[in-house]
Amino acid sequence: MYYWIVIAGYLIGSIPFSYLIARCWKGIDIRKCGSGNVGMTNVWRNAGPVAGVLAFVGDFGKGVLVVILARHYGSPLLVAGSGMAALAGHSWPVFLGFKGGKLVATGVGIIAAISFPVGVLTMVIWLVVVGLSRYVSAGSITAVVSIPLLMLVFRLEWPYLAVGVFFAAFAVYKHIPNLKRLVGGTEPKIGRKKL
Question: Which range marks the domain in which residue 173 is found?
């Protein structure tokens, strides 16, 4: 009955906050700068930390919004479907020719709205790994892989666990180039522009 919520989830997920903020803040097309990725890290490196934080807040917030909207109208299954649609929208946004970001901020927003403790622990893991390694990608990969395990610990319902598994698998896939650079020692650390 509320399948339109899933479509709304995709459209909300498609809102390219990183692109919009970089364009408004610095007058640049973030797709043509640095890594070319439409995400917080690339915005931070090329438009500054304030723009990067705003990009994160926008992408995180749209994930939260999708879950709140779906919960208002339906069951955990609708929340799961809408969350996955939002992730697809962020990765393949209709507003940017279906070329989007790597999911992490939006995905963590979805997870935090589903389970606040899991969301907080995910962000703590990200901060610890990034702080120790100085690699944003290493923190992102470690954090997203931990999500299904944390969901099992907190005994979340299976539709939510499905979102966690989908998010983790999808995000790792999107980070394959980063994994290759990490292995090859060419992945840029925080404070350095992409090589």
Answer: 4-184
The rounded distance, in Å, linking the Cα atoms of 161 and 83 is 12
pLDDT digits (tens, 9 = 90+) for 167-188: 999 999 999 998 999 999 888 8
pTM: 0.91
Q: Is 9 a member of any domain?
A: yes
In a domain, 53, yes or no: yes
- Residue whose pair of structure tokens reads 């909207």 in the numeric block: 69
Domain count, the chain: 1
C-alpha 114/C-alpha 118 separation (Å) is 8
* pLDDT exceeds cutoff 70 at 1: no
Residue 85 lies in a domain: yes
Q: How many other C-beta atoms are found inside a 10 Å radius of the C-beta of residue 178?
A: 22
Give the chain as a 3 state SS string: CCCHHHHHHHHHHCCCHHHHHHHHHHCCCHHHCCCCCCCHHHHHHHHCHHHHHHHHHHHHHHHHHHHHHHHHHCCHHHHHHHHHHHHHHHHCCHHHCCCCCCCHHHHHHHHHHHCHHHHHHHHHHHHHHHHHHCCHHHHHHHHHHHHHHHHHHCCCCHHHHHHHHHHHHHHHHHCHHHHHHHHHCCCCCCCCCCC
Q: Is the pLDDT of residue 195 over 60?
A: no
| 92 occurs within a structural domain | yes
pLDDT tens digits, residue range 95-120?
A: 999 998 888 999 999 999 999 999 99
